[in-house]
Amino acid sequence: MSGAFPDEFLWGAATSAYQIEGSPLADGAGPSNWHVFAHTPGCIAGNENADVACDHYHRWREDIAVMRELGLQSYRFSLSWSRVLPEGTGRVNRPGLDFYDRLVDGLLAAGIEPWPTLFHWDLPQALDERGGWANRDCAEWFADYARVVFARLGDRVDHWMTLNEPWVVVDGGYVFGVHAPGKRDLALAPLAAHNLLRGHGLAVRCLRAEARGQVGIVVNLEPKDADSDWPADLEATRRADAYMNRWYLDPLVKGRYPDEMRDIFGANWPTFPADDFKLITEPIDFLGLNYYTRSVNRADAAARPVGASPVRQDGAVYTETGWEVRPGSLREVLGWIKSRYGDLPIYITENGAAFADPSPDQGGRVADRPRLDYFRGHLQAVRDAIADGVDVRGYFAWSLLDNFEWACGYEKTFGLVQVDYATQERTIKDSGRFYRDVIASNGLALDA
Ligand code: FCB
Q1: Could you give the angle at the alpha carbon of 421 between the alpha carbons of 415 and 426, nearest 5°?
Q2: Catalytic sites, residue numbers
Q3: Which atom of ligand 1 has the smallest separation from the CA of 406?
Q4: What confidence tens digit (pLDDT) does each residue in 228-258 have?
Q5: Mean of the pLDDT values across residues 140-159?
Q6: Which residues neighbour 177 within 8 Å (Cβ) at sequence distance 6 or greater?
Q7: CATH number of the CATH domain containing 417
Q8: pTM to 2 decimals?
């Protein structure tokens, strides 16, 4: 399909607090578990941390100017919980809230809709020390934090996201230990997942009761294809699909976990109180989808806990993070959401690619053709999905800026805008210029 996107389609870009802000302890903020994790030797490539990152904490005005240059209509960012509540609960750190208050006002003054996410992985360290998400109380702590934020920003924000990618929080933080809090504990993982979902439900209730605006949750989905039609491969692929794609959406929409979760976690899979699902299924206004890639799977008993391993595809293009470039799988997963979960309005809340970029040339151009092609292909897939009848309402490119890519440090760059960390200079890449043209033409530039 060619042509323009629907008139009201929303164009934006996304970031997250720990990845761009820097100054994690400034003005009375408490440490987050990501701050502690990044300062633990051996956890991050090159032992990097985000003490400075993109220095967005000081350069946010300049960054809003860059957003204007790109013509963004909306900006998805996250709040650092421990800037707002240094101990995670109780005492509010006013300067932390002030920072987000100024950011929201600055965006609105620039004609850019603020789309905040309450939790994009950086849990206050004080709460981690009380058991973090594995502690049932963490859901209430999260709702208390949400209440403080809604009270301050709720008069100006029309769209909220509760959690970013709970699957990654649990898989990286509690199953494989490659993200904060660095645990490998199959007994804690199902509890952490469940309490994330309860926290989400409580925050939704809190918004309905005390603020206005729409609210959604952000999940990352990755279609799982089987390497062969051998029964063992098909079953492994089904488990991989349950683990990554249905573990969160099934309880959110259908009020129950997929049956495969018991096969995956065995005796570690608990029985949850039935009442919890009333909370978890609290209706949301939209679903945020983060899509990067798909995977092809084969049975592999040694690959705990799922028993599936990814198989590299001959002839396919892979990004620097080892993710296969496959726009058709985005169209497919959008159709799958509609057929399995119904007609939820969907926003693509992240989509993008890490490729090694050249430095700016003499004319100041950063020629990042592979990323430009990635965006073009995936935006065409979104347009196809809309033509298929899927209610996709907006798209946020990941990411506005090159930034701290979690355990990968600064090496993997996803930005529409290059950041020179020595000078903090920002340079719009060719992909950013292309995206600007796409926005300005409401998608027509995809066909140029
Ligand atoms: C997603 C995260 C985001 C970024 C991208 C590349 O899983 O939500 O913060 O790291 O991947």
Answers
A1: 50
A2: 165, 350
A3: 10
A4: 999 999 999 999 999 999 999 999 999 999 9
A5: 98
A6: 183, 184
A7: 3.20.20.80
A8: 0.98
